[in-house]
Structure prediction request, 109 residues.
Amino acid sequence: MPLLTANFSVNELSVTRHPLYNVPGPVEELYLLRLCELVLEPLRVLWGVPIATSSGYRSAAVNAAAGGEEDSQHRRGQAADIVPVGLPLGEAFRMLVQSGIPFDQAILE
Prediction:
């Protein structure tokens, strides 16, 4: 699958551990592109480390299997569960909050 931006691909943002169909459509790919351009790439630059993605786009079946809310932003390609590689989560969270990078919600787990 193609790269969305320099550091993120459609494949990476639609990988799942569930053996279910999970390929975003054109609209979801556009939302993934915006997510990468506006949030994920700026975060990678801000943090200065790679970002591991455990969940991005989820089909209806994958979202249900993952226990996601029916109206989850993952279903639209507007969310990603991420972890900075080599940066403490508390520090990463603080940097995000202070950065001005636009985001809807950030959950520290």
The helical segments are 26-47, 60-65, 89-99. The longest strand covers residues 51-55. The beta strands are 3-5, 8-9, 51-55, 81-84. The two ends are 29 Å apart (CA to CA).
